[in-house]
């Protein structure tokens, strides 16, 4: 054990080691992306286990996605820890509820509603005579999720939303009525949504002393990754798990809070030391993931954030060798952008970068379509993460149906083998087909076998029916199993992960930041953090691109994201005047100029704000002063009156090519 211990500690720096070897009790690691927070908690678990402070079975580690949980289990196994639980909050709660259910509710099992949730919300709306369409239904479902995650019941809903000035999809009293009806219908049909899994778990522990005693005897050491995105509901579950104890290790980065739209808040992370005055608090600043070039860009993205809470103003210091500068690229339209990304990926593959080390990240899942197409055309294998796509594929749906049918027969022998046997009838041949659609189908089926292997490795005695339940839960939670290929994922799904090469695409106004964040400072800041999360996923190679039009040959009316301001090197071709400069309509506005960038103002919104809607409203004084002095200085050099002088990049363009444009 001594050399295992030495090996564990040798893989850490001094601050990480302090967190790993802190005595049992509260520990908090506050640190930026790539500093080794996740590494620190896996090593801490291994250290406590090897030291004999806890047994693996007494450890409960929670993370945010099924993939992250799987990765943590893999890392733990590699450190010689077998049988520790690493799960999402929901998976942990589901497992506990299954066990406690007969005691706290009764013998009858309830089912998960998630697949038919929208229909239920629709019925609820109909019942209370609230008119809706498809989009409003989705908003209502999201709103009910937010309320439950925020521990806000139907009666408190109107007051709670008024207090935080929350935009509600319908008037608050109507939402509350739908929410009430939804809960009634759901409970009557004996259904549970994801929020209920957590609520029932907390309630079981809070209200049943025997359940709590048994649970607390079983689990003694709690670890939470990505704690900056904990919701009040999850915190309540965590508190119920802990009881009076304080054996809790949390790690997080307030700059990576990206779920506040869903009720999450970094406050418990930032106030951890106040809540547990004896806590060991560790800060990490060395970034082990990314090259100094990537770290530099990430620092600039987050450095521009407003209102960063104390405790989140850490600067990352890159530890790796130099790498290529981040690459910026502008395209006329999205298909051209996607084709260029596919070409660049092909180059990386040819240079020996494995496909599994490449990711294309976007803001909304709908963006994946054009990349799926471009990659298919280029013959590059890919997988879509965090999307329902995997479970929506016809071959997967058929396979799950076949597995379900097989599960009703008595369950026999090794789980992965039984799954393989069922899937053989669905086209899972021993050797993969050469390529094309047949190969893709085969890969999907193989992924189901891999999932069975994962389950068999983590859950003793897992049988076919348990496996089918897991598949259904994942289909609901939209976590596809792993297959090899270039990853296509939303920025939200990419949290905590890393790749050698990362493509951040679709960086235009209206997409990142997303349209509905416009005008809402807090929402804009969350969008900025999303870009920070995305950029910090890259180890070596980072690409940022945008397209001025959606479809090929379409009108080029889009503008690149405001967050790129200050990131694009000034000598880059993309840092040229924007379309607005060439827009004859500008003259109508009497040549009023943006107080930030100096460009002509176009459109009513810009005139009202006195700046381009895409220009930051929070340029710091220093930058503004620099801009102004550049402007007058360059104006002198160019012998033009100061009002024709725009941004520095624009100036270069004017000086080089087109003095007549400025008349
Ligand atoms: P995020 O905020 O994105 O979740 P994180 O802080 O959890 O990041 P990790 O994923 O734990 O960071 O670590 C980032 C990378 O740096 C990993 O590849 C990890 O193995 C490596 N790493 C962490 N600590 C060290 C170290 N002391 N020496 C060498 N490599 C390290
Ligand atoms: Mg992490």
UniProtKB/TrEMBL annotation:
Keywords: ATP-binding, Helicase, Hydrolase, Isomerase, Nucleotide-binding
One GO cellular component term noted in the UniProt record for this chain: DNA helicase complex
GO biological process: one example: recombinational repair
Reaction catalysis annotation: ATP + H2O = ADP + phosphate + H(+); Couples ATP hydrolysis with the unwinding of duplex DNA by translocating in the 3'-5' direction
Main EC class the enzyme belongs to: isomerase
Entry EC no(s): 5.6.2.4
Domain UvrD-like helicase C-terminal: start-end pairs: 292-540
Matches recorded under CDD domains: DEXQc_UvrD, SF1_C_UvrD
Residues reported in the UniProt entry to bind ATP: 31-38
Gene Ontology terms, MF aspect: 3'-5' DNA helicase activity; ATP binding; ATP hydrolysis activity; DNA binding
PROSITE patterns assigned: HRDC, UVRD_HELICASE_ATP_BIND, UVRD_HELICASE_CTER
UvrD-like helicase ATP-binding domain segment(s): 10-291
PANTHER family, sorted: ATP-DEPENDENT DNA HELICASE UVRD2 (PTHR11070:SF69), UVRD / RECB / PCRA DNA HELICASE FAMILY MEMBER (PTHR11070)
Family: Belongs to the helicase family. UvrD subfamily.
Listed name of the protein: DNA 3'-5' helicase
Native source organism of the sequence: Gandjariella thermophila
């Amino acid at each position: 054990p001594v050399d295992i211990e030495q090996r564990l500690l040798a893989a850490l720096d001094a601050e990480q080691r302090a967190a790993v070897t802190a005595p049992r009790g509260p520990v908090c690691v506050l640190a930026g992306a790539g500093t080794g927070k996740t590494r620190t908690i896996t090593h801490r678990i291994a250290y406590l286990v090897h030291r004999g402070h806890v047994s693996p079975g007494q450890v409960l580690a929670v993370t945010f996605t099924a993939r992250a949980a799987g990765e943590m289990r893999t890392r733990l196994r590699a450190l010689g820890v077998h049988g520790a639980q690493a799960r999402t909050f929901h998976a942990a709660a589901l497992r506990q509820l299954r066990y406690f259910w007969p005691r706290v509710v009764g013998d009858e099992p309830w089912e998960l509603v998630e697949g038919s949730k929208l229909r239920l919300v629709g019925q609820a709306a109909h019942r209370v005579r609230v008119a809706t369409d498809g989009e409003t239904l989705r908003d209502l479902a999201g709103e009910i999720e937010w309320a439950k995650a925020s521990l806000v019941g139907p009666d408190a809903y109107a007051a709670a939303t008024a207090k935080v000035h929350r935009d509600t999809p319908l008037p608050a009293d109507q939402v509350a009525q739908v929410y009430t009806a939804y809960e009634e219908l759901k409970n009557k049909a004996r259904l549970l949504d994801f929020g209920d899994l957590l609520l029932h778990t907390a309630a079981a522990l809070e209200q049943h002393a025997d359940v709590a005693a048994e649970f607390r005897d079983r689990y003694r050491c709690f670890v939470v990754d990505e704690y900056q995105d904990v919701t009040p509901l999850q915190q309540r579950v965590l508190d119920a798990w802990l009881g009076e104890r304080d054996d809790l290790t949390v790690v997080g980065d307030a700059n990576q809070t990206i779920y506040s739209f869903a009720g999450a808040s970094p406050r418990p992370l930032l106030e951890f030391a106040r809540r547990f005055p004896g806590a060991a608090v560790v800060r990490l600043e060395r970034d082990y993931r990314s090259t100094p070039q990537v770290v530099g860009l990430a620092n600039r993205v987050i450095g521009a954030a407003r209102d960063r809470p104390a405790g989140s103003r850490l600067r990352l210091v890159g530890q790796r060798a130099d790498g290529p500068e981040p690459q910026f690229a502008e395209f006329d339209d999205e298909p051209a952008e996607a084709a260029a990304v596919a070409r660049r990926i092909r180059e990386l593959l040819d240079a020996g970068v494995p496909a599994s080390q490449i990711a294309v990240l976007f803001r909304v899942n709908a963006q994946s379509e054009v990349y799926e197409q471009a990659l298919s055309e280029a013959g590059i294998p890919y997988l879509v993460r965090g999307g329902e796509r995997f479970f929506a594929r016809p071959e997967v749906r058929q396979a799950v149906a076949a597995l379900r049918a097989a599960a009703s027969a008595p369950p026999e022998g090794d789980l992965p083998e039984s799954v393989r046997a069922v899937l053989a009838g669905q086209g899972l041949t021993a050797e993969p087909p050469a390529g094309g659609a047949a190969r893709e189908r085969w890969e999907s089926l193989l992924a189901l076998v891999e999932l069975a292997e994962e389950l068999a490795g983590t859950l003793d005695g897992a049988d076919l029916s348990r496996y089918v339940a897991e598949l259904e839960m994942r289909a609901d939670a939209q976590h596809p199993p792993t297959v090899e290929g270039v990853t296509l994922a939303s920025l939200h799904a990419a949290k905590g992960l890393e790749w050698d090469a990362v493509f951040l695409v679709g960086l235009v106004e209206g997409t990142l930041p997303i349209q509905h964040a416009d005008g809402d400072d807090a929402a804009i800041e969350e969008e900025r953090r999303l870009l920070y999360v995305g950029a910090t996923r890259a180890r070596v190679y980072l690409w940022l691109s945008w397209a001025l039009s959606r479809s090929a040959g379409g009108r080029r009316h889009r503008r690149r994201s405001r967050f790129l301001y200050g990131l694009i090197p000034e000598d880059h071709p993309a840092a040229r005047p924007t379309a607005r400069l060439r827009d004859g309509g500008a003259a109508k506005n009497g040549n009023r100029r943006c107080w930030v960038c100096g460009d002509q103002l176009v459109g009513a919104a810009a005139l009202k704000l006195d700046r381009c809607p895409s220009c930051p409203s929070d340029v710091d004084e220093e930058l503004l002063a620099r801009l102004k002095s550049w402007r007058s200085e360059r104006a002198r050099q160019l012998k033009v009156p100061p009002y024709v002088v725009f941004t520095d990049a624009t100036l270069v363009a004017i000086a080089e090519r087109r003095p007549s444009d400025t008349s």
